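hey so i finally got around to running the thing on that chain from the lab meeting. sorry it took forever, my laptop kept dying and i had to restart like 3 times. anyway pasting the input first so we r on the same page abt which one it is
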Amino acid sequence: MSPEISIIILTVFAGAAQGVFTFLVAGDLLGLIKGSPLDGKVMIAGAMVSFLLTLVGIGSSFFHLTHPERGIKAIRRWQSSWLSLEAILMPVFMAFVGLYGLCAYFGAPPGLRVATGLLGVGTSFALYLASGMLYAACRYIKEWNTPYTPINFTIIGLATGGVVWTGTLEAIGAPHSITLSVIRVAFLLTVIGVVLKLAYYRRNRRLYNSFNIQSALGINHPEIKLMDMGTSYQHYNTKEYDYRGFANKRGRIRRISLALLFGSPIILLTLDYMPHLKGSPGVLGLIAAISMMAGALMERWLFFVDGSHAQNLYYGSFKDAGAANPILQSAKKGAQLPPV
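ok and heres what got predicted. didnt touch it at all, straight out
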C-alpha cells in the first residue's frame, strides 16, 4: 500500500502521547496511594507533552483529507466504523488531557484530578484499539488482518510514550525514584515490543506461499498464466495499492528501524538506569526518545508499504515473500482451490 506520511505521523505521535499520559496518570495514582504525590510541575509537564504530541498527530491528519471541511462527516458511522470511532476518541482524549493539566495547574482535589486522568487513560486504550482495528479489519490486506496489528500499535505506543516520558522527567529534573520506575516499565514494554514485532514479521513471511493465479481464479488448470493486466496505463488501483518504492532496500530499512525502535532504547535505558541508582542525573533518556520516535516512524512506514491489497493478484503485481511473483508463473498442477 502507498504510505501516507500524514497518517504515519498521526499514529506514531498520537500513540506516543497516549503512552506518556498513561505513565503520568499511573505515577500520579501510585504516588497518592503511597502518600508521596507527584510534584505539580511533573504533572503539568506530562500533560503538556501529551497534548502537544496529540496536536501534532491530529494536525498532520488533515493533510490526508482531500476536503478537510468534510472531516466532521467521519463521525457519522461510529456504530460500524473503526475510523469513525478513532475520529471521535482522539479529541475526547485530548479533552481529558487538557482537563487533567488544568486540574494540576489550579490545584484541584486529587480525587477529581486522578478520576479525570483515569478517564483519559481509558479513552487512550480505546483509541489504541480503534487505530489498530482500523487496519486489522481489512481482510483483503493479509499483512494487517491479524491480532498482532492492534497489539503492536498498543505496545509500541506505550513503550514509545514511556521512553519519551523518561526523557521529559530527566529534562525537568524530576526525583530519581520516579524516573527509575518509569525506566523499568518502559524497558519491559520495549522488550515485549521487539518480541511481538519479530513474531509479526515471521508470520507475514509465510502469508503467500500458497497463493498463485490458479488459486486466485479458482480454476484448477496447470497452464494458466497472465497474458494482459487489463489496463494500458497506471491508475489509482495500481498506484495506491501496490507501492514499489525502496523495494530492494526494505530489508535494510527494517533492520535499521528495529535497531532505532528497540535496540538503541534498550541499551540507552540500561546505561541511563545506573546514574539514577546512584542519585546522579541521567542524560540518555532524551537520546533514547529521539531514537525511538525515529524508529517508530520507520516501523509505521514499513507497516503500510508491506501491506499488499488482494486486488494486486489480478493486476500481476502481487508481492510474494522470498519467491518469484506467482502471478507471472504457470500454475502448479494439483494446487488447492480456495474454499467456496
